[in-house]
Specification:
The complex is a heterodimer of chains A (634) and B (312). Chain A has 25 helices and 13 strands. With 634 residues, chain A is of the alpha/beta class. In chain A, the strands form three sheets. Chain A has a five-stranded mixed sheet, sandwiched between helices. Chain A has a four-stranded mixed sheet with strand order 2-1-3-4, covered by helices on one side. Chain A has a four-stranded parallel sheet with strand order 7-6-5-8, sandwiched between helices. In chain A, helix 1 packs antiparallel against helix 3 (55-66) and helix 11 (246-266) crosses helix 17 (427-439). Chain B is of the alpha+beta class and 312 residues long. Chain B folds into three domains: 11-136, Ubiquitin-like (UB roll) (Roll); 168-235, Alpha-Beta Plaits; 247-312, Single Sheet (N-terminal domain of TfIIb). Chain B is built from eight helices and 14 strands. Chain B has helices spanning 30-36, 88-104, 112-120, 180-185, 224-228, 237-245, 296-300, 302-305, and strands at residues 12-17, 20-25, 60-63, 70-71, 82-84, 131-132, 154-155, 168-170, 196-198, 205-207, 234-236, 253-259, 268-274, 277-282. The chains are: A alpha/beta (634), B alpha+beta (312). Chains A and B meet through helix 5, helix 21, helix 22 and helix 23 of A and strand 4, helix 2, strand 7 and strand 9 of B. The structure holds flavin mononucleotide, iron/sulfur cluster (3 copies) and FE2/S2 (inorganic) cluster (2 copies). Residues 184-185, 190, 192, 194-195, 219-225 of chain B line the site of one iron/sulfur cluster (SF4).
Chain lengths: 634, 312
């Protein structure tokens, strides 16, 4: 390739940031001065292809250090990797947490998504605009926001929906001087203003994240969440004292085939959205003659309203490390990747520490627990893209590309990460695997219903008394879940529930008796998705919420295929016209247009994002949610 | 790179297309099978010489047992596969893809078959309202953010023409994002990687790094991207200037095939001549050495040959 890069313009800080990931430049190489970078990864003269996967970590290093990806910084990174600058720019400009124009060093991302909207997020954004000015992206482009050291932007769901009104602070600066990123929830106006003023603010006390664990007595039915609030998430000893690493021991005793046999017996279905049998997935990889195999834990959790994986990683990170190790063992993979969403700095820090602790105690590396099995885990940080949670997009993201999904077949078990046979599972699915090994496949299958075995995590948010993460055996009804969460806030009437996330559907009060099983919700044309139960009372503006959902899909489309790239724009425009009372033709014409768009997006899009981008909108239309809320009692 | 060793005989697979049985060698795409049957299948992002990206979705067909429609251009025929190429679902999706493209980019310089498909699928490119140019510059689009949704019509990709070098112009208000130019500039032909897809969603665009002008990029002006561009978004500067002056007259043009005299490779050139001047140079896609690709000398050397006056 003909590389034309201009590494000469990189600042000292930018060089140090890049060298921190790639190692310092060896004496024989030109293009950079020698610095005392910490050399976490050592240059080995590998082919460019083999280093391409370091592009995303390098971009993070630049963004964290100087607050944006500058031409000089990118040029230096491109010369070091090497990667063509146009391609690297294509990657940098794909992710929402990267800036390719100068930006204040501190940026506060304010969630204005579905759950926070029910808790006044829009009013918060309006107030911020009045007090400190509009969000950064509404400034004139290119016009740098002046001397301001801070700024704010609106953000899609930050995965802290149970606290209401969440923010994420992204801080750039020299290492050690300032923290990289931090989440705050709940974040009322005063707190956000304090953060924007450069301070830390004082966080108000949050709610219990897992009400069933906080209750006295503690709910004895907790399985995936059994250690939450009991074990110290920073201590491997504490994890082991609470039953940790029993499952891996059991797995090593059973052998890889034995593990898969137990999974078959458990009839475990994936919790990441597609409900695919886990045993079949692992078996296909284990039996693939092409070596090496790889395993991946999908912790990109970005479905609005979803926060379960974050809670598990923050409260019980060793569970994820142990489960991924079991997965590597059963699938015959020497290496696993844990892809954590970029908006989860606390969860990422916890799992990274857990991986290090496990390695230092011989639970990763060679000869784990006295066996001949060796396994390594690499933690990768996402950079703000819902689509990166789609499995083939996630692979591309790790590989150092734009997170664009591809058509299947081939499926990951045949050709996944780096073209290798790959098994990929959601965090919650992996938690279930530990449970299967702990109690046995048959016992697991006895929990729940015939077709939906085990327990399920439900992310309850919106207008309820006690939002939070709940765990129930399959079979629990929607009404029971809402009642456990204290019912609709203030005893108001229930208007609708968004079930399964924004890729799911709205259901009405008549669905309260529906059991939340895969088969139960399928019967009413809905899906469990990522376990979202977003409760809406009679004061919620349905059309406003649906417009936020349409905005989300437009913003998160990767842009590859026409039905999704342009269809999501046209869908949002039609809803905006309806809200403005300016339909194009009659209201029925608009409905016809929306229906056509829905059909083409569902039928002709490459991936699940486009295929589901109209589901919630269509279900809301069917339920009459577009109409303004009925005037309720005072 | 084409490996040419003797392949083992391929097995045959049989499926049906629109009810008629078809038998093709394993690995044949649905598109190839359709073409063999004489079924006209619209394609926009597909080109014989490039790796299929299956992004435009205008070629989708219905396969029995598959929840979503599948792209004919990249899906291989499987044993027993039952394909419908003209069902209601297929027609709706194809129509919507054309309507969505037509409502957002300028298709007026596309190949004639695109206009034929617009008619065949009764695509109404105006149905989303009058075209509205975007408020912010498209090169500055930020991933994951956009301004308030348009209520007065359909937001488009309208933007000024990029006219930053002597050889060719880029009018991305015509770009359908078919990825062909990126592939031609990358591993499928040129290996220069001067351009790539940047941004995401409706803000996705073809760009150099930080949208620098072409002379500041890695571009070597081979023009292979122009050769594959199906929309007229990439255009010889000579053609662009003549169109602007109203002098472009394809009916007065002749095409002469010759062999490039600059070096010994022997690339085929097609010289498009109007009023005794070479106005653009293409190369036949089916040429077994060049597959439509040239270098700057073959593609743009004519300007030096005829010492053309710089216009505009
Ligand atoms: C747009 C989109 C986003 C997705 N995001 C996630 C995600 O954040 N986490 C996840 O586990 N699965 C996500 N998935 C599903 C994955 O593609 C994949 O099915 C899942 O990781 C498989 O794990 P499981 O079998 O354990 O459910 C997403 C799918 C789509 C189409
Ligand atoms: S459906 Fe949307 S997100 Fe998925 S590949 Fe197509 S454009 Fe990208
Ligand atoms: S002219 Fe050649 S080098 Fe330049 S962008 Fe086009 S394909 Fe790439
Ligand atoms: S410029 Fe032309 S070839 Fe390139 S993506 Fe756009 S339409 Fe396709
Ligand atoms: S954190 Fe705001 S909606 Fe989830
Ligand atoms: S031609 Fe098949 S998807 Fe574009």
């Amino acid at each position: 390739m003909d590389l034309r890069v201009e590494p000469g313009h990189a600042s000292w800080a930018e060089r140090e940031a890049v060298d921190g990931v790639l190692g310092t430049v060896p004496a024989w190489a030109d293009g950079g001065e020698r610095t005392a970078g910490d050399g976490r990864m050592v240059e080995g003269g590998h082919a460019a292809r083999e280093r391409r996967h370091l592009l995303l970590p390098v971009l993070h290093a630049l963004q964290d250090r100087v607050g944006w990806i500058s031409p000089g910084g990118l040029g230096y990174a491109c010369a070091r990797l090497p990667v063509p600058p146009a391609e690297a720019f294509g990657v940098a400009s794909f992710y929402a947490l990267f800036a390719t124009v100068p930006r204040p060093a501190t940026v506060v991302h304010v969630c204005d998504d579905v759950a926070c909207r029910c808790r006044g997020a829009e009013a918060l954004c309006q107030e911020l605009t009045l007090r400190v000015g509009p969000p950064l992206d509404e400034h004139e482009e290119g016009a740098s926001p002046g001397p301001a050291a801070t700024g704010w932007v609106r953000s899609p769901c930050l995965g802290r929906c149970e606290q209401g009104s969440a923010v994420l602070v992204q801080r750039a600066g020299d290492p050690g001087v300032s923290g990289r990123a931090a989440s705050h929830a709940p974040a009322p106006l005063d707190q956000v203003l304090a953060l924007l003023a450069g301070g830390a603010g004082s966080a108000p006390a949050g709610r219990a994240v897992v009400p069933q664990a906080a209750a006295a007595p503690r709910d004895p039915g907790l399985r995936l969440l059994r250690r939450v609030g009991l074990a110290d998430p920073a201590s491997l000893d504490s994890y082991r004292a609470h039953g940790g690493y029993q499952a891996l021991r059991r797995a090593l005793a059973l052998g890889p085939r034995g593990v898969i046999r137990e999974l078959h017996e458990s009839r475990l279905l994936g919790r990441g959205g597609a409900a695919f049998p886990t045993a079949a997935k692992w078996e296909a990889v284990a039996q693939n003659p092409v070596q090496p195999h790889l395993v991946v834990c999908n912790a990109d959790e970005s479905e609005p309203g979803t926060f379960k994986d974050r809670v598990v990683m923050e409260a019980d990170p060793f569970q994820v490390v142990e489960a991924l190790t079991v997965m590597g063992y059963a699938c015959g993979a020497p290496r696993g990747y844990l892809y954590v969403r970029g908006e989860y700095p606390e969860a990422e820090a916890r799992v990274t520490a857990a991986v290090a602790a496990a390695r230092s105690r011989g639970l990763l590396g060679n000869g784990i627990l006295g066996s001949s099995f060796g396994f390594e885990i690499e933690v990768r940080r996402g950079a703000g893209a819902y689509i990166a949670g789609e499995e083939t997009a996630l692979f591309r993201s790790i590989e150092g590309g734009r997170a664009e999904p591809r058509n299947k077949p081939p499926f990951p078990a045949e050709s996944g990460l780096f073209g290798r046979p790959t098994a990929i599972n959601n965090v919650e699915t992996l938690g279930c695997v530990l449970e299967v090994l702990t109690i046995g496949g048959a016992a697991f299958a006895a929990i729940g219903t015939e077709a939906s075995t085990g327990t399920r995590l439900f992310c309850v948010s919106g207008c309820v008394e006690r939002p939070g993460l709940y765990e129930f055996a399959f079979g629990v009804t929607l009404g029971e879940v809402i009642r456990s969460a204290g019912g609709v806030e203030g005893g108001r009437p229930l208007r609708a529930v968004l079930l399964g996330g924004v890729a799911g559907t709205f259901v009405g009060p008549e669905a309260l008796d529906v059991p939340l099983t895969f088969e139960g919700v399928r019967a009413i044309g809905a899906s469990l998705g990522s376990g979202v139960v977003l409760v809406l009372d009679d004061t919620v503006d349905g059309l406003d919420l649906v417009r936020r959902i349409a905005r989300f899909f437009r913003d998160e489309s990767c842009g590859q295929c026409v039905p999704c790239r342009v269809g999501t724009v046209r869908q949002e425009e039609a809803l905006a016209r309806l809200a403005a009372g300016r339909p194009l033709g009659s209201a029925a014409d608009e409905t016809g247009r929306l229906d056509d768009l829905a059909q083409a997006m569902r039928d002709a899009s490459i991936c699940g994002l486009g295929q589901t981008a109209a589901l919630a909108v269509q279900s809301a239309a069917r339920m009459g949610l577009f109409a303004s809320p009925p005037p309720g009692p005072p | 790179m084409t490996a040419s060793f003797v392949a083992p005989p391929r097995r045959l697979v049989t499926g049906t297309i629109d009810g008629r049985p078809v038998t093709v060698p394993e690995g044949t795409t649905v598109l190839q099978a359709c073409r063999q049957q004489g079924i006209d299948t619209p394609t926009l992002c597909y080109l014989e010489t490039l790796t299929p990206v299956n992004a435009c979705r205008v070629c989708v067909v219905e396969v029995e047992g598959s929840r979503a429609l599948v792209p004919a251009c990249s899906r291989a025929v499987e044993p027993g596969m039952a394909v419908q190429t003209d069902s209601e679902r297929v027609r709706t999706s194809r129509r919507l893809v054309l309507e969505l493209l037509g409502s957002s980019v300028d298709l007026s310089l596309c190949a004639p078959e695109v206009r034929r498909w617009l008619v065949r699928y009764r695509a109404d490119t105006e149905r989303f309202g009058p075209a509205q140019a975007p408020e912010a510059a498209r090169d500055a689009a930020r991933p994951g953010h956009h301004g308030p949704a348009e209520t007065g019509g359909a937001e488009t990709c309208a933007q000024p023409v990029k006219d930053d070098n002597e050889d060719y112009v880029r009018d991305y208000s015509r770009c359908i994002l078919c990825y062909k130019c990126v592939e031609a500039c990358g591993t499928d032909a040129q290996n220069t990687f001067a351009i790539a897809v940047a941004g995401r969603g409706f803000g996705a665009r073809i760009s150099t790094e930080f949208a620098v002008p072409l002379p500041d990029s890695a571009c070597v002006y081979c023009g292979n991207c122009i050769q594959v561009c199906p929309t007229g978004a990439l255009m010889f500067r000579s053609e662009h200037v003549m169109r602007g002056d109203g002098r472009w007259a394809p009916e007065r043009q002749t095409v002469t095939t010759t062999i490039c005299s600059y070096c010994g490779v022997g690339c085929n050139l097609e010289l498009h001549v109007q009023d005794n001047s070479i106005v653009k140079v293409t190369s036949p896609l089916d040429h077994d050495v060049t597959r439509g690709n040239l270098c700057v000398k073959g593609r743009f050397g004519f300007q030096f040959v005829q010492n053309r006056r710089r216009e505009g």
